[in-house]
Amino acid sequence: MASRAGPRAEGTDGSDYQHRERVASHYQMSVALKSEIKKLIYMQVAIWLLLLAQMCVGHLKLLPHDQVAMPYQWEYPYLLSIIPSLFGLMSFPRNNISYLVLSMISTGLFSVAPLIYGSMEMFPMAQQLYRHGKAYRFIFGFSAVSVMYLLLVVAAQVHGWQLYYSKKLLDSWFTSTQEKKKK
User: Fold this and answer.
1) Domain segments of the chain as ranges
2) What's the pTM?
3) Which candidate in 102, 137, 140, 163 could, as Cys together with 69 as Cys, close a disulfide (CB 3.0–4.6 Å)?
4) How far apart are CA 111 and CA 106, in angstroms?
5) pLDDT tens per residue across span 111-159
């Protein structure tokens, strides 16, 4: 092999060593999955901030009641959904499996469960809106049920993809630790 300062070994152009210069696939996958999960965490934080802003405006009465409705009951426990995001971010620097598992479990508890409850809580109001055309809560002129269902669907997708990529990342990390143990 060639050194950084000197010529290549005689009789080779260096191409016979390319197999040594490739990064193992599970390391490549780990970097790619971390990037995807970070993007999803940032989206989740944006959703969280929107809900927090709506709750603050509703409770502090910064805008009239007909502009921003009071929050639904499912929004309060959903505020805890920031915890899984923090665990996820803390797991990345050293590939900490424990934090990633905590992130996945708490995503189900603090993120997905409130979304399921929210869909059940808002269903009668959505039914009334679409059957009779009556809405009693509004967010900037739009039916609060419609806006919150839209937010709920986006949040469910974000958390679903976050769990999927976290599981793939966990598998990738287990692969690398198993290879280290074999050596």
Assistant:
1) 29-182
2) 0.80
3) 137
4) 7
5) 999 999 999 999 988 888 888 888 888 888 888 888 999 999 999 999 9
